[in-house]
User: Which sequence fits this backbone?
């Protein structure tokens, strides 16, 4: 893939020039803030002076570190790599910074400020990696993918002698016992190998929502395998 040129850092440059109004906290928070969170809010809402600019630079640097860690963690499940993966991390940090500043008055202290802020950048990473996948998705080979399902479902390798029966039972459950939504998500992620982020972006769903659908589908399949003697322990909590 062609690596896009690095974008300037809009949160730091534009905010310092006063293109956005100073953030003002809308009254007291719902609960008493910890000292670190209170300090972040104080500095980020300090008008257009040096105190706020230093806080923005510090927060942006942290967001970049979190984004780089997150794209590295997910690198095995995305076709994005090399300089473009690094560029995705910086784009995610830039956009997360803008979102955090725009929603600063919505922070109510249910968690630490940094925990709250890091969620923005992780969501941005998921969204951007998901969109990148669909630029050039790989061609899936349905038969070969289905044959690897016993491994993906955590079936003991010693039971692979029964793989034909296991595979037939899995396909029966997928076709006749999963809901249409579960079937679409399960086949896309587990059979075709589409990354969670990519499917979430395509279906306009949260990543955790897609994960929960897959977990429920796997649980149905393992129950059926146990009921038909292919598994001694249904392993319902295996993920």
Assistant:
């Amino acid at each position: 893939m062609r690596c896009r040129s690095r974008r300037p850092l809009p949160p730091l440059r534009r905010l310092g020039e006063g293109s956005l109004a100073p953030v003002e906290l809308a009254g007291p928070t719902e609960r008493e803030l910890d000292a670190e969170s209170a300090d972040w809010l104080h500095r980020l809402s300090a008008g257009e002076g040096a105190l706020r600019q230093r806080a923005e630079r510090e927060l942006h640097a942290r967001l970049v570190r979190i984004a780089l860690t997150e794209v590295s963690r997910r690198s095995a499940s995305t076709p994005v790599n090399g300089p473009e993966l690094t560029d995705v991390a910086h784009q995610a940090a830039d956009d997360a910074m803008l979102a955090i500043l725009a929603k600063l008055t919505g922070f109510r202290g249910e968690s630490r400020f940094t925990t709250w802020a890091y969620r923005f950048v992780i969501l941005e990473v998921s969204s951007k990696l998901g969109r990148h996948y669909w630029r050039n998705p790989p061609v899936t080979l349905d038969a070969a993918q289905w044959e690897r399902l016993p491994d993906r479902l955590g079936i003991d390798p010693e039971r692979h002698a029964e793989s034909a029966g296991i595979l037939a039972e899995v396909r029966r459950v997928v076709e006749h016992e999963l809901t249409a939504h579960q079937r679409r998500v399960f086949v896309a992620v587990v059979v075709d190998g589409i990354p969670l982020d990519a499917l979430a972006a395509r279906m306009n769903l949260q990543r955790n929502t897609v994960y929960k659908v897959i977990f429920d589908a796997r649980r149905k399949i393992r129950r059926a395998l146990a009921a038909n003697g292919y598994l001694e322990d249904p392993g319902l909590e295996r993920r």
